[in-house]
Write a structure and sequence with these properties.
By secondary structure, the chain is an alpha/beta fold. A six-stranded mixed sheet has the order 5-4-1-2-3-6, sandwiched between helices. It has a five-stranded mixed sheet with strand order 9-8-7-10-11, with helices on both faces. The two termini are 29 Å apart. Bound molecules: adenosine monophosphate and magnesium ion (MG).
Length: 340
């Protein structure tokens, strides 16, 4: 089965082609156009600009795939219908509808979050590979630019959401902290880089830490912003101070995430843990989680599959079709800022 996966939920335009059979997969093509340069000067994603970039880049990426692959051979188009930014999703939807009509193919609607958790099952490499099997129950943390969700999965078909962020997502909070420090967008990787140079830790609050499994990062961001203002009153922000502040913010966010993971581990005794989404690319976060749970099988995506891309969407599409999820005609396609 050959699936074309299309990703336009936020600021990455991704189109990938995969071939799958009997729980095996090979990536035939993987095209990605990142928009970080467009959004950098705004310190965050501007939805309408994201939509414009998707509309511009989708035909370019498809052309690259079409150069050495006959699109008629595709079995399904997998498309991430949300959650995401509406203008960005609508740009993708218009493209997918036209393509599905032109090729006369059915569409597999893919939940963007499922694409994140399935991303840990494969490697980003050429050639055939087995899709990993994992032991359940598994605890899943999705930490991205738009989401911080904690789930317990009995199996792939049965899940319970334990908690989510009540305001900013973890990635979004790192992006905002980076903006306060003038580090550019996306902020997560910049904060990670600067943190390595730190010599000092500034204490910051951990909102709603002891209250269940929800997260809250906006109060932390405000406290951080106040701290930076205070420091600026008596000194210029030099590189060392920026490093110390980056480290302190990152450490606080990660300690909050880990606190909730540990709490869920002791309450629900999962057999495995999955941490996925853009923030999971962070090597310090990975080390911190492994250190506190040394005896656990913990799955992280490969760095290039942690952030948004078409391979994750195509893989999710395959797993959905394999499990008899209905496919739809182009006229039935709709997109969602939040999934119903
Ligand atoms: P996604 O929404 O899954 O595409 O992920 C994008 C988010 O991941 C943004 O908020 C980035 O700042 C964040 N991110 C990407 N790489 C890293 C990293 N190495 N460390 C921390 N956050 C990261
Ligand atoms: Mg994402």
């Amino acid at each position: 089965m050959i699936i074309l996966g299309i990703e336009t939920t936020c600021d990455e335009t991704g189109i990938s082609l995969i071939e799958c059979e009997n729980n095996r997969l090979r990536i035939l093509k993987n095209e990605l156009a990142s928009q970080y340069k467009v959004h950098n000067k705004f310190g965050g994603v501007v939805p309408i600009l994201a939509a414009r970039e998707h509309t511009k880049n989708l035909p370019i990426l498809l052309k690259k795939i079409n150069q050495d692959f006959n699109l008629e051979k595709i079995d399904y188009l997998a498309f991430s219908v949300g959650p995401g930014l509406l203008p960005a999703l609508i740009a993708g939807k218009e493209f997918v509808i036209k393509l599905a009509e032109k090729l006369n193919k059915k569409i597999i609607p893919v939940d963007h979050l499922s694409a994140h958790w399935y991303s840990v099952l494969i490697k980003n490499k050429s050639g055939w590979q087995k899709i990993k099997q994992i032991d359940f129950p598994t605890l899943i943390l999705i930490v991205s630019g738009g989401h911080t969700n904690l789930y317990l999965f009995e199996n792939w078909g049965k899940r319970k959401k334990l908690g989510q962020t009540l305001d900013d997502a973890a990635g979004e909070s790192l992006d905002k902290a980076a903006r306060i420090l003038n580090l550019g967008y996306p902020g997560g990787p910049q904060i990670e880089k600067m943190s390595k140079l730190a010599k000092k830790y500034y204490m910051l609050p951990k909102p709603i830490l002891n209250k269940g499994y929800n997260f809250s990062f906006s109060g932390l961001k405000t406290a951080f912003s106040e701290l930076v203002k205070e420091i600026k009153k008596y000194q210029k922000l030099n590189q060392q101070t920026v490093a110390d502040l980056s480290f302190s913010f990152q450490k606080t966010v990660f300690e909050i995430l880990i606190y909730k993971i540990k709490k869920a581990v002791s309450e629900f005794s999962p057999k495995t843990i999955i941490v996925a989404g853009g923030v999971s690319a962070n090597q310090t976060l990975r080390k911190m989680i492994k250190n506190v749970l040394p005896n656990f099988k913990i799955y992280f995506p490969e760095k290039t599959l942690a952030t948004d891309n078409g391979v994750n969407i195509a893989l999710a599409g395959y797993l959905l079709v394999k499990n008899k999820r209905k496919v739809i005609g182009a006229s039935k396609l709709d997109v969602y800022q939040r999934l119903p």
